[in-house]
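Hello, quick one for you while I still have it in my head. A protein chain has come my way and I'm curious about its shape. I'm sending you its amino acid sequence along with the backbone structure tokens. I'd be grateful if you could look everything over and explain what you see. Here's the protein in full, and shout if anything looks odd to you:
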Amino acid sequence: MHLHILGICGTFMGSLALLARDLGHTVTGSDANVYPPMSTQLENAGITLMQGYDRSHLQPHPDLVIVGNAMKRGIDAIEYMLNEGLAYISGPQFLADYVLQGKHVLGVAGTHGKTTTTTMLAWVLDQAGLNPGFLIGGVPLGFSESARLGGGQYFCVEADEYDSAFFDKRSKFVHYHPKTAILNNLEFDHADIFDDLAAIQKQFHHLVRTIPSEGRIIAPITETHIDEVLEQGCWTPIVRTSLEAHPQAVLSAEQLSADGSHFKVLENGILKGEVKWNMTGQHSVANALATIAAAEHVGVAIETACEALSNFGGVKRRMELLGTVKGIEVYDDFAHHPTAIETTLDGARKRLGERKLWAIIEPRSNTMRMGSHKDGLAHSARLADEVIWYQPEGLDWDLQPVIDAASNKAIIVHTLDEILHQIVTEAGEGDAVVIMSNGGFGGLHQKLIAALKA
């Protein structure tokens, strides 16, 4: 078939495009925001990309249009698709119908850590020789691509709670029917489609209803919002994890370093393995425990999983070191939520010690642009020595109250040139600069490295 994907450069849709290509389909796609790393990955895969959403992109008619959840009524290609009566489907439904049928699906859900944990899980299963398929909402460093069909019975998928399409407002993960499900954490997010936390919990319970009684749910012992979901009804055994010894936790960690880079793994209090890796932060340890529990459900020994995680390379844009110029380290991080900002900076602070830590933050996610989390932003960035908040055009609220509430040094800038000037003139050898955005940030990352070199 000829498949045309509307919104192809989104992290999910781009990964789906790779799977569709590997199934033997001809794949083309349109997007308004064609930028790396996804655009590079797709072009390298031989997939034709078109800028914008013009009806001409659907001429001649493809056999099937896969519609991304960013698409809305009124977009030229969408109106043409509907008026012409073209066959169309949501991305999650295509994945369920064409890829996941007959597979043992391992789904990773939660507000934070989905991409990294899905990558960890695919990596562990791969290192154990299970040749899993996977779809990851990002570009993993340990694999050549963000999605593959795999050769075995297992498929690891990032199970997102965001809606499926303009014509299907259910969460994506309702389509996947996982047999092994990680529920990492749960906070209010996606204010553009959810009214409150209860609305998200309702979708999570819809997911729980689809997990078979012979399956497994993995959840931390400390997540009360997940507990409230499970109390609505659960028909599946639950394995609990904990960052420290806890009587109700099956898997727990014994921390050997404050920054989360070295820890022991215990099952019911008995030492089973040890992880020493390049990841940092307590959230990374929590992700590792969930990964190990999920892998054990499909027969991977804890010791084997620990060995694999000790060689785990991470994910692009998750505290990814882009370069060190004149002793200044430049990192890229996807942080889309105050909790993500806080946990990332906590891990960085524990690793850096007394070295100076800069945070450059673009509040770009839909929820942050709407101001839903603005009261927590100053606190979330408190562990950085200096914070540069970028106020882009079109932000629905003023960042000044965030500056006023800051306990550390914080400024607002309105242009990338101001950011470059600030870092180039004030950062020094031994400093670390973390750029935090869930978008391309106008190419700031490479511009900063170039400016520091100059």
